[in-house]
Write a structure and sequence with these properties.
single chain; alpha+beta; HIT family, subunit A; two-stranded antiparallel ribbon; 7 strands; globular; binds zinc ion
Length: 109
């Protein structure tokens, strides 16, 4: 299977069942992907151990990002999708948000 997420390249953090790396096309600086090491295509297919490993890496990544980028907020999302008619390897997006970007929104006082 030619799956780029199974190849585990350029990762930053890992534990027994998952790893974390920077997105090569980041939405914001520090955008990280949390990826199970096994080729799993949906959250429901993860074992309890894998879920725990994924969430542990969310914590570790968030700590790492706080030290490097000091974001004001984070978005955590799950990527479950199909590409070329095949289910893709599941991953989480951990996207840091920055106070500057929020200032572009008009706030009602
Ligand atoms: Zn895969």
């Amino acid at each position: 299977m030619n799956c780029k997420y199974c190849q585990k390249r350029d990762y930053l953090l890992e534990n027994e069942f998952a790893y974390a790396k920077f997105d090569t096309n980041p939405t914001t600086p520090g955008h990280m992907l949390i990826v199970p090491k096994r080729h799993v295509t949906d959250y429901n297919y993860l074992t309890e151990q894998e879920k725990e490993a994924m969430h542990q890496l969310v914590d570790m990544s968030k700590d790492a990002l706080a030290g490097i980028y000091n974001p004001s907020d984070y978005n955590l999302s799950m990527n479950v999708c199909e590409a070329n008619g095949q289910a893709e390897h599941l991953y989480f997006n951990l996207i840091p948000k920055y106070a500057e970007a929020q200032n572009t929104n008009t706030e009602i006082a």
